[in-house]
Design brief:
two-stranded antiparallel sheet, elongated, alpha+beta, single chain, 12-stranded mixed sheet, about 20% strand
């Protein structure tokens, strides 16, 4: 039955395109690892020379950079507008609730009529009638105002989604142009493992996949998602109970590092804050004490039938192991960064300047194509804080 289910899943992927990424197998992962191990010195050299290589592409990519910068400014503005609208909506809601509570229009009691007919004389009757009419009109106006705010919020959410899509399309175009110069967006990522740490981590992941393939009787050329079972999650949630957004996902020109892709959203939190899995899945990678990225946990997910990975960087400690099944209540580690993990602790995590979580979502279980976490998780705008995971 298990083999039949795997075959059906594979056919489903082929004909209905739910597997919307390039298939990867244990065999292909091993081949790529062997290739990278053989060329480790060249990879290190390439990592150091990326900025020099793309200088020659200046003319070709400058217009795309301007487009991306414009989109990101517009996205920031929309996020601020949405934050303000949602605050106004919440205020209106509380005001309406308070007014309805005051009027006590519940349990079938008509408090309006009681109030009116308790009038002492005709003048008082007219006064009370006017008060009721005014209160009713005020409540109706409040409801109309809240409805209009909600409709405006919906429009801005659609506009935000479109802007993010346009920004991502421009970044994809940039990726295509950079490949002509033997550079990819992955080479520009600001937070990543150094080559040696990355290879070591991938070896451990492959060892885990080997055990699963053997246990399930899969040949090495079978696609990972066909051989490895995973819980289907409905969506992602925030990986922290509270925090402040300090940096956005996207392409940028950094005064210190030059052109770079910020592959995730940075969330400022105190040192040793619990970090949770953003969705149900299986831990697929652990990197320890990388010079750029620090302690890193990677989790494989199936969300609404599609493959994703979530990545948690700059951790002070790791609480999970490769192959462990997790859910949104699982603490994967505790936040690090800054002085705790900088040079005085052995020179690792040199890309981190302060305590925070770098949270990344990637398409697929392999590859390095990060996507904007805002496509999957609701976060406040840059500089704003949140106080729940939902």
């Amino acid at each position: 039955m298990k083999k039949i289910n795997k075959t059906l899943l594979f056919i489903f992927c082929l004909f209905f395109l739910t597997c919307n990424i390039k298939a990867e197998s244990l065999k292909s992962l091993k081949a790529q690892l062997a290739k990278d191990e053989a060329n480790q010195a060249a990879l290190v050299k390439k990592q150091k020379n990326v900025q020099n290589k793309i200088k020659s592409a200046n003319k070709e990519i400058s217009s795309l950079e301007k487009d991306i910068e414009r989109y990101e400014d517009e996205i920031d503005d929309l996020l601020e507008q949405i934050d303000e609208l949602e605050i106004d909506i919440e205020k209106k809601k509380k005001e309406i609730d308070s007014l309805l509570s005051f009027l006590q229009v519940s349990n079938g009691d008509n408090i309006y009529l009681e109030y009116v007919f308790e009038a002492k004389d005709f003048t008082d009757f007219i006064y009370r009638s006017a008060v009721v009419e005014e209160l009713t009109k005020y409540n109706d106006d409040l409801i109309d105002e809240m409805y209009n705010l909600i409709e405006e919020d919906k429009k801005l959410q659609v506009e935000l989604k479109n802007k993010i899509a346009k920004s991502e399309a421009s970044i994809k175009d940039l990726d295509k142009k950079l490949k002509n110069y033997n550079v990819s967006l992955a080479d520009l990522e600001d937070a990543h493992s150094d080559v040696a740490a990355e290879i070591k981590s991938r070896k451990k992941t492959i060892e885990y996949y080997e055990s699963i393939y053997k246990a399930n009787g899969c040949k090495e050329d079978v696609d990972l998602v066909v051989c490895i079972s995973s819980t289907n999650a409905k969506g992602f949630v925030r990986p922290l109970t509270k925090g402040t957004i300090t940096s956005e996902w996207g392409y940028r020109i950094c005064p210190v590092h030059g052109r770079e892709i910020h592959s995730g959203i940075d969330i400022g939190v105190p040192l040793n804050t619990p970090v949770y899995a953003s969705a149900a899945g299986t831990v697929s990678g652990i990197t320890t004490k990388s010079s750029c990225g620090g302690n890193i946990v990677t989790i494989n997910h199936i969300v609404n039938g599609k493959q994703y990975r979530s990545v948690y960087m700059h951790l002070a400690s790791i609480n999970v192991k490769i192959g462990q099944a997790v859910n949104i209540n699982t603490i994967v580690g505790k936040s690090g960064g800054g002085g705790f993990t900088l040079r005085k602790n052995g020179g690792w995590d040199t890309c981190s300047t302060g305590a925070h979580l770098h949270f990344t979502i990637r398409n697929g279980w392999t590859g390095s194509n990060s996507v904007n976490p805002r496509n999957f998780v609701t976060f406040p705008s840059k500089g704003k804080s949140f106080s729940s995971r939902f």
